[in-house]
Structures are given as C-alpha cells and as structure tokens.
Amino acid sequence: MLRYKLVVVGGGSGGCSVAAKFTRKLGKGQVAVIEPAEKHYYQPMWTMVGGGMKTVEQSARPMKDVLPAQADWIRERAVAFDPKSNKVTTSSGDEVTYEYLVVAMGIQINWDAIKGLKEALDTPGVCSNYSPKYAPKTFEELKAFREGNAIFTFPNTPIKCPGAPQKILYIADQYLRKAGKRDKATLIYNTSLPVLFGVKKYAESLWKVVEDRGIVVNNRRCLTEVRPDTREAVFVDLDRPEHQFMEKYELLHVTPNMSAPDVLKACPALTDAAGYVDVDKHTLQHNRHPNVFAIGDCSSVPTSKTAAAVAAECGVLGKNLWSVMSGGQCTASYDGYTSCPLVTGYSKCILAEFKFDGVPLETFPIDQGKERWAPFVMKKELMPFLYWQLMLKGYWNGPKVIRKALHLGMSD
Ligand code: FAD
Q1: At what angle do helices 307-325 and 13-26 cross, to 10 degrees?
Q2: Does ligand 1 have an atom closer than 6 angstroms to the CB of 54?
Q3: Is it the case that residue 97 has pLDDT exceeding 90?
Q4: CATH of residue 70
Q5: pLDDT tens by residue, 224-265
Q6: What is the best residue among 8, 9, 17, 43 to mutate for testing ligand 1's pocket, by most ligand atoms within 8 Å of CB?
Q7: Which residues form the FAD/NAD(P)-binding domain (predicted)?
Q8: Cα 297 to middle of ligand 1, angstroms
Q9: Are 88 and 32 within one domain?
Q10: Counting atoms of ligand 1 from 1, which one is nearest the CA of 298?
Q11: What is the pLDDT of residues 336-393, one digit of tens each?
C-alpha cells in the first residue's frame, strides 16, 4: 500500500498546477500524481491546430517534463475511489492512501454517444478539434473543401470550452474567403443551446459576426447520427424531439458529447447527481469530505469549463488546502472567473471574461466585446508561454492582480 500526504488524480492543467504548488511546500515523496497519459496537451491550442495556425506537436509535451520532479508519478488510471477510507485504487489494483486528495480528472469525451461518429471521423469530411488525433484533420478538410454545407455542431451536454465549437466556425469562414471558396459554401452552426453564447454581452457581439458573414445559426438542434457513406448528418429538434431531419455535409465539425468520468459516476459518495465532484463553489472543498478538493472540468463548480477557470481555481485551492493542512479553515473564495478567447478568424478575437452567473469580469479597461487584434496575439502567442512556463509550475493564478492594477483597484 502506497501512502502520501497528498494524492492528485489527473496530471492535466489542474492536476499538474496543484501538484507543482504543493510539491514545493511539502517536499519530495509527499505528493503523488496518478496519471496514465504519457503526453500532456495544451488543449486550447487545438483550435489553432484546426485552423492550420499551429501543429499538434506544438500543443504536446512529455508528461514527465511537466509533472513536478519531486512528485511521485503513478503511471496508471484511478479505477475506484473510497473517500471513507481515504483510498484510491489504480488500474494495476494497487491501493494508494492519502491524507488529502485533489481530484483533477477533467471531463470525459463520449465519442460513442453519437451514432456512427467514431467510424465517420476516419472518413472524408468529418473532423473534430476535441482530439489531438482529429484536430489536424480539421485543417486538411478545410483545404479539401470544394462546395456544399460546412456544418459545425454543439452537443446537448456540458462541454469544456463552450466557445471552441464556434471559434472553428469563424476560422473556417475566414479560410474559405481567403481560398476564394466562400461563395460555394453554406456555413451552418447547429447548436443544442437556446443561445449563441451563455453571456449576453458576448452573444450580442457574436450575433453581429454571424450576420455580417452570412452564417446560418440554428438553435436547439442536436446531432444524433452521422452517415459517412452518404455524407449525411441527422439532427433532432430539441424542442420537438419527434422531429428528426437530415442535412448533407461536405465538411462536418463535431463537438462530441461529454460527461463526468465514469469512475467518478461510480462513486456517489464523492459526486453530485451528474457525477461531478461535489465541492463548494467558492472554497473548492468537498461538501462531505473536508480532506478532498477538486479542480477544473471534473468539479461541480457552475462555471464555464476552461483552463482559465482552472488557473483562477488553482490560486484559491492552493490557499484553502494549505490552510486546512495547517489546521485552519478555508478563507479564499473563488468568484467563478473564466475566460474564452473567441477567435473570429486569423487575426481577431473577442476576449470573453466572466464570473458566476455570466457577469462580465474583464481584465482590460476597454470594451472586450469588440473583435480586436491584441487578444488574438495574446491567445496565439502569449497564452501558451504562460501555460507552460507559469501555470503548470503553479505560479499563474489568473489575471486578477493585473485586472486590479489596470482598473486602479476598482474591479473585483
Ligand atoms: P484536463 O486538462 O483535461 O486533464 C485531465 C487529466 O486527467 C488528463 O491528463 C487525463 O489523462 C487524466 N485522467 C483522466 N482520467 C483519469 C483517471 N481515471 N485516472 C487518472 N487520471 C485520469 N480553455 C481555455 O481556457 N481557453 C481556451 O481557449 C480553450 N480552448 C479549448 C479548445 C479545445 C478544442 C479544447 C478541447 C479545450 C479548450 N479549453 C480551453 C479547455 C481546457 O483545455 C480545459 O478546460 C482544461 O484543460 C481543464 O483542465 P483539467 O485539469 O480539469 O482537465
């Protein structure tokens, strides 16, 4: 039986950042990270990969290079949790016990949930930026596009980075214009949501973008089946579920269904009804097990699931977990800060930043609802640097300090 002061499950954005913070505090042999993947991906870059602006290799690093050297890396999957006995079982059957646990397993992608999708991804015309395998194919499909419908989907489940399904839509529009093929394409955004974006301010800006560019937006339409042989996509009208209809595609960019990881769903003692780790949305401490915390996409925190949210959560979790370890209380409070750089092409971006309940919380004292060049450069060049050099080492807790300074202390 392995024993650690702190066990972190998942070595993605959240797990790696938390492990780095606490390895510095606790020293060698005190922190273990359970993580099966050999590669760590900077997933926000996959949007740029799909648009041909970066390669998938640029989004990857060997896991051994990003996990803190002083932490023990257990290269296995967590297969069961037992919070009453402070124990996690790994895929080899080993039991790892902890004094404190941070769950950072991300969200699970369910490629099987849409009939025919898994097979269709290996056929012409179908792609998805939600996988390192298929994000490069998005750009190949854009280059190969001749004429017809280019359809982009948003599923009927929570997803990570809810802006990403439409970022690639705008990039595709700009690519096809540059290639002189835009007049041969009908661009269609079929989203399960009743709105274009969850925050009114940015939704208004985005409606202007789709209207200016002649993009068709259909709300409450959910992809249920892909038929690659005939290049047909089947959708259901979520307001009239008996109403199914088919659309032909030349290009189909699918955002797959997602859910809480199965291993969490199998442990109701840790989760809410949907299977996400049941934590207090301000302290990130578990509602029933005070020695357990969660960060990022696998948590029940009701904010948009992004790496930007993870960064801000990491600062709060770092303070609260350290306080609890030292016999104190959770005093730091997460405000729901999250951000979505809504890339609208090859040089512009609307930088959405907001907190709980979709209230804008912008870093810069300008109207961030406008398409601008500077946030695009920030997204493409500065953010990857920040991610690899600061965030994964536990030094980036979001832009709060910068925001306060730029607003002369008059912002949250
Ligand atoms: P992840 O980083 O996904 O890490 C989860 C880790 O858990 C993985 O390493 C996984 O291998 C591991 N794991 C899973 N199951 C187990 C198990 N059973 N046992 C042990 N380990 C396990 N965010 C932004 O802020 N801005 C953006 O512009 C943006 N764009 C995006 C575009 C795309 C196409 C995608 C896919 C994501 C984007 N995101 C963006 C979202 C961002 O990448 C995620 O929100 C963020 O990575 C979440 O971090 P996490 O630590 O919760 O999960």
Answers
A1: 30
A2: no
A3: yes
A4: 3.50.50.60
A5: 999 999 999 999 999 999 999 999 999 999 999 999 999 999
A6: 43
A7: 4-118
A8: 7
A9: yes
A10: 52
A11: 999 999 999 999 999 999 999 999 999 999 999 999 999 999 999 999 999 999 999 9
Dihedral through CA 317, CA 24, CA 325, CA 77, nearest 10?
A: 70
Ligand 1 pocket, residue 310 CB under 6 Å: yes
Query: Of 16, 161, 330, 349, which is the active-site residue?
Result: 161
User: Is the CB of residue 295 less than 8 Å from the CB of residue 286?
Assistant: no
- In this prediction the pTM is 0.98
Mean residue pLDDT across the chain: 97
pLDDT classification of 408: cutoffs 50, 70, 90: confident
Same domain for 44 and 31: yes
Calculate how far, in angstroms, residue 359's C-alpha sits from the geometric centre of ligand 1.
Answer: 24
Q: For residue 12, what are the domain limits?
A: 2-107+260-330
End position of a domain, from candidates 212, 240, 258:
258
The enclosing H or E element of 126 equals: strand 126-127
> How far apart are alpha carbons 157 and 382 in whole angstroms?
31
Closest ligand 1 atom to Cα of 63:
9
Based on the domain organization, do 252 and 116 belong to the same domain? yes
127 carries an active-site annotation? no
- The rounded distance, in Å, linking the Cα atoms of 31 and 355 is 31
pLDDT, residue 338, reads 98
CA of 86 from ligand 1 middle (Å) equals: 25
Question: Which two tokens mark 118?
Answer: 């898994």
Judge whether 340 counts as a catalytic residue: yes
Is residue 311 in a domain? yes
Alpha-carbon torsion (85, 90, 96, 98), positive or negative: negative
Distance from residue 55's CA to the centre of ligand 1 (Å): 18
Instruction: Determine whether the shortest distance from the Cβ of 387 to ligand 1 is under 6 A.
Output: no
Q: If you average pLDDT over residues 130-134, what whole number do you get?
A: 98
